[in-house]
Amino acid sequence: MSISLKYAVVERERRFLLASLPDGVVSTKQIVDRYVTGTRMRLREVCEEDGTVIRKLGHKVRLSAGPAEVACTNFYLDDQEWAVLEALPAQILRKKRYMLHRDGLIVVVDEHEDGTLVAEIDDREQPSEFVPEWLDTIEDLTEDERWTGAGLAR
């Protein structure tokens, strides 16, 4: 099957298990992801620091054999659309997201309910093997399906 990327954004993310949260946090948000059973769709509710709530429906298509490269399409939802879709059966993942800006690099770190810290570095513009030394990595999780959002929600 041919995949059209006309409306999609390609994400190339590397994931790392961290020992600690690095310095440089500029913002935080609470995220609840609902991975709709039997689909590639995710409902995401984001609560910003100022109390703003953003709700969206996402669809991800793998572009390579592993989870590192996906085409993502998002639709922003109003309250009525959210209420209809929220009723679908789903696996739920809750996390706190930290946005870091340090040394010209943007890194997000997700803290899961059990305290596990997973960093994501987006290589959308320029794929790179560079990992900053200030990122206290334990393990590279990039190709491990268990550490994707859907994998963690199971």
Q: Per DSSP, what share of the residues sits in E-state strands of 2 or more residues?
A: over 45%
Poorly predicted segments: none
CATH topology assignment: Hypothetical Protein Pfu-838710-001
Main pleated-sheet profile: 8 strands, antiparallel, barrel
* CA distance, first residue to last residue: 27 Å
List the domain count as a whole number: 1
Global shape = globular
What's the pLDDT, averaged over the residues? 90
Spatial arrangement of strands, main beta sheet: 1-5-4-3-2-6-7-8
Q: Give the proportion of residues in helices.
A: under 10%
CATH architecture: Beta Barrel
Topology (SSEs and partners):
Layout: E1 9-18, E2 25-36, E3 41-48, E4 53-62, E5 69-76, H1 79-86, E6 90-102, E7 105-112, E8 117-122, E9 137-140, H2 149-153
Antiparallel strand pairs: 1-5, 1-8, 1-9, 2-3, 2-6, 3-4, 4-5, 6-7, 7-8
Question: How would you describe this structure to a colleague?
Answer:
With 154 residues, the protein is mainly beta. It has one domain: Hypothetical Protein Pfu-838710-001. Helices cover 8% and strands 51% of the residues. It is built from two helices and nine strands. The protein has an eight-stranded antiparallel barrel with strand order 1-5-4-3-2-6-7-8. The radius of gyration is 16 Å and the shape is globular. The two termini are 27 Å apart. The mean pLDDT is 90.
